[in-house]
Write a structure and sequence with these properties.
- By secondary structure, the protein is mainly α.
- Helices cover 73% and strands 0% of the residues.
- The protein is built from 19 helices and no strands.
- α17 packs antiparallel against α18.
- The protein starts with a helix and ends with a helix.
Length: 410
């Protein structure tokens, strides 16, 4: 819901509520029996009840006189109010004026207070309170070990005897040589394949220690990913630290940004999660591993963030030949195949120019242009790709490698 529409509806509801309140007050004297007349009728019934109780001996004479005096005093007061109402000088007049003023103050004050503290799409707490609550939730959420304790045991895949023997040998070797980088890398990878995520991230933690300052964004991302898997999809404080280290080395890392969005979603900040995920969806590529999980969750995050009219962007099909294309290409002449490849390259170039893509896609485009012999265009694409991935060393390496293969590297 756009902000302007929200304020129009909220203001209209507030005015309607105020009008109902004022109308109820102003019509109070015209709604049949006024309160003072009702009180008089009740008090007179009480007098008759006292007389009956006295006659039956339920109430003593002196107590009956005292009760009659009290009721008579109330009758006199109610009759005074009733006569004033009939004469048009009801003492409720100032109350009516105050009610009208108070209704106006309530409407104006409510809107002003909401403008300061509230936001469409959230619950009934002020925005500042929600942010503080979410931050407290994030700072005090369960640690990795506590989250793992709540995860039910996984059903591990069945492995044959030879592979089991190899794994036991690998574990023994790494235990004997804990500083063996390659051994720990093999162990982390294979433990993860077996679903032993705790053992896998323990090995990955050793890899980070062994690499020290040379550890890459991918190394920290692998560690965070294994922590999240071990915790059943929960982004723990330990995983958050690993993600921060990955993003410090590669601010555009898609998987790390997805997990940060997930952490925000889990700790009461769907607005932040939506920002992370919406950006990733629009950047692509459509085959990135985080695209599917984002598309499954972003609509709920958008609604909670107040983006009521959010629509998922359409899936962009991957560029490349399918089975039918390959079958048709086998029957084409060399000129027809060249034309088909040129069309695919032009399609990929158009999409990258319009919405961007991954370093892998830019590298593929450069390679394809080199194969087609269009080196001038390949150089232009190379210049553009280097500008886009200037802050990402790993991506630049991939693009420069493709450029060298295409014969356009400087």
């Amino acid at each position: 819901m756009p902000t302007l529409t929200f304020w129009i509806i909220a203001g209209a509801l507030a005015l309607i509520s105020a009008a109902v309140l004022i109308r109820a007050v102003l019509r109070g004297a015209d709604m049949g029996e006024v309160p003072a007349a009702y009180d008089l009728r009740v008090y007179r019934d009480q007098l008759r009840e006292i007389d009956r109780d006295t006659a039956r001996g339920i109430v003593a004479e002196d107590e009956a006189e005292r009760l009659k005096s009290e009721v008579a005093r109330r009758i006199l007061a109610a009759d005074t109010v009733l006569q004033a109402q009939k004469a048009g000088t009801s003492p409720t007049g100032p109350v009516r004026s105050m009610a009208i003023v108070a209704a106006g103050v309530v409407v104006a004050g409510t809107l002003a207070l909401y403008a300061e503290l509230g936001t469409p799409g959230y619950g009934d707490l002020g925005l500042k309170s929600r942010i503080a609550t979410a931050e407290d939730m994030r700072q005090n959420r369960p640690a990795q070990a506590a989250a793992e304790a709540r995860v039910p045991p996984l059903t591990l895949p069945q492995i044959d005897g030879s592979y089991a023997d190899l794994m036991e040998k690998l574990r023994s070797t790494v235990a004997e040589r804990p500083n063996d980088l390659q051994g720990n890398q093999l162990l982390a990878r294979n433990e993860a394949l077996l679903g032993n995520f705790i053992a896998a991230y323990t090995a990955q933690e050793r890899i980070l220690g062994l690499k020290g300052d040379a550890a890459t964004a991918a190394d920290y991302l692998d560690y965070a990913d294994l922590l999240v898997l071990a915790a059943g999809g929960y982004v723990s404080p330990e995983a958050e630290l690993a993600l921060s280290a990955a993003l410090a080395r590669d601010p555009q890392n898609g998987a790390a940004r997805y997990y940060v969005g997930l952490m925000m979603y889990q700790t009461g900040r769907p607005d932040k999660a939506f920002q992370f995920w919406d950006g990733l969806l629009r950047e692509g590529p459509p085959d990135a591993p985080w695209i599917g999980p984002i598309r499954a969750q972003i609509e709920d995050a958008a609604w909670l963030a107040g983006q009521f009219r959010y629509e998922l962007p359409p899936l962009v099909p991957l560029i490349g030949p399918d089975a039918d294309d390959l079958a048709a290409a086998a029957e084409m002449t060399p000129e027809q195949r060249q034309e088909m490849v040129q069309g695919m390259v032009d399609q990929l170039a158009g999409r990258l120019a319009a919405s961007g893509g991954t370093a892998d896609e830019w590298a593929r485009l450069i390679s394809a242009l080199g194969v087609l012999g269009d080196r001038d265009r390949a150089r232009a694409i190379l210049t553009e790709a280097r500008e886009k991935f200037l802050a990402q060393p790993a991506a630049l390496d991939q693009i420069n490698t493709a450029a060298r293969a295409a014969g356009v590297s400087e």
